[in-house]
Design brief:
There is one protein chain. This protein is mainly α. It has one domain. It is built from 7 helices and 2 strands, in the order ββααααααα. The protein has a two-stranded antiparallel ribbon with strand order 1-2. Strand 1 and strand 2 form a beta hairpin. 13% of the residues are buried.
Length: 152
């Protein structure tokens, strides 16, 4: 585990461990969740169609929702079968790229956070705003679907 030095208000050096930094813990957790999503996509075969997570909306209403076929789409994308993935969910690639980009951003922002201690607050603000914008762009159709369901 890396340890770096930081001056306290009294001028003494304090040892700070990354494990004590909330921002780094959150980034590690999010990266872990994303890796689990990718592992899930790689583990379950799109040819066998035996995904343990099913669409509750489709089971209740009998009609597919905007997220139906995402697991299948992700499994196909992981295997390089992108054209097929679009047939299962037209938003699958957009959502997959969101997760892939977030994985890269979690690593990059964590490195910058540790390296440039004087700009941490700005880095966190940029991370939050940027990730929020990327989320809205990637999940726009899902947000519209939920809002239209609430309003109708």
């Amino acid at each position: 585990m890396t340890v770096y030095q930081r001056k306290s208000e009294t001028g003494n050096n304090l040892k700070v461990r990354p494990a004590n930094e909330s921002y780094l813990i959150i980034n590690l957790f999010l990266a872990g969740v994303i890796l689990l999503i990718f592992a899930y996509s790689g583990f379950f075969s799109p040819d066998e169609d035996k995904y343990p997570v099913t669409c509750i909306h489709e089971k209740i209403t009998g009609e597919p929702c905007v997220s139906c076929g995402l697991s299948h789409s992700f499994s196909l994308i992981v295997r390089g079968r992108v054209a097929e993935a679009y047939k299962w969910n037209i938003y699958g690639m957009r959502i997959f790229l969101f997760f892939a980009l977030q994985l890269v951003l979690r690593a990059a922002f964590s490195i910058f956070y540790m390296k440039y201690r004087n700009t941490r607050k700005q880095l966190i603000v940029i991370d939050c705003i940027g990730s929020g914008i990327i989320f809205i762009v990637a999940f726009r159709q899902f947000i519209v679907y939920i809002i239209s369901g609430i309003l109708s």
